[in-house]
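Title: Prediction job returns without error message
Component: structure pipeline
Severity: low
Priority: P3
Assignee: unassigned

Description:
Job completed but the reporter wants confirmation the result is attached to the right record. Sequence as submitted:
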Amino acid sequence: MKTNNYTKGILLGILLGILWGLDSIFIEQVGNTPFLANLEVATAIGISETTFSFSPLVTAFFHESFCFIWVALVLLMKKQLRYTFHVLFHTKRGLATAIAALVGSPIGMSAYLLGIKFAGAPYASSISVIYPGIGAVFSYFLLKEKLSIRAIIGISISLLGSFMLSFKPSTKVPDTFMLGIFFAGIAVLGWALEGVIIGFAMKHIKGEDHIQATPQQLLCLRYFVATIAYGAIVLPIIKGYPLAGVIVKQGLIWQYAGIAILGALTYLAWYKAVDLIGSALGTALNSTAALWTIIFSTLLFKTQITSNLIIWGIVIVLGVFIFAVDPAAFRKKK
């Protein structure tokens, strides 16, 4: 039985990398729609230049909103949705989850989608997967958690790969490439801090050990808080509601709904994989999304992929594996 669970966990880990890779490239393709990719087309239908520049934030709003809807429906069928909101409004850990969601989604997810827009999905995805290592560094300084020599080596390899990918790109990159890499770096910081906040809450908030919120319920809270933040704060700031209206009228909203299924399934697969094989190996397998993004970009959309991207993408993922997976513990679990 244990062997079957381990195999199932490995397959789920591989699946979540595939799903996140597909999520990234499909979002990039929707972003190539004329009024999202061409300023002249956008202004012709009444979209301001500022809104056009930050159009990925409108994408993030639809993506996170539909992810919330899909996960909430799952919990509703399980009769667990009501308790989900009880956790948010009546516990300190629920509040910590809300704060972490603000860092991870309106900041992390927005920056990631801006990275995709300006640098391309393969590059943004390859940079973003180093966030667990950066989170470990933050935890070392902020939560006083230890870092092994193996972890330091793995993080260093990932950072080297990211540096080489960022500052030695091929000539076949857009003019906005470095801006995209900057935003991908912001995404890394946002997602890393999200993990640190959750880690702090689990470690230092006492007296709530009786709270039995499932990972799916915490995920639902994350998407709910993100949806409210985008709708009430982000879109009004960038004057994004006119663009959101155009997206609805053009029927793109259904494409966002479909892509969000991939996003929701990614996290659900992630939580289940972690439950079966542990967070270390789950984290490592999640990083393969960078390679799947490269593969799907080439196979599905004929994107020209350079050897530079392939080599340093592999180096980054290798670094994450070295950081996340302790060979001795891996052999013991297996």
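Comment from assignee: result matches the submitted record. DSSP finds 18 helices and no strands in the chain.
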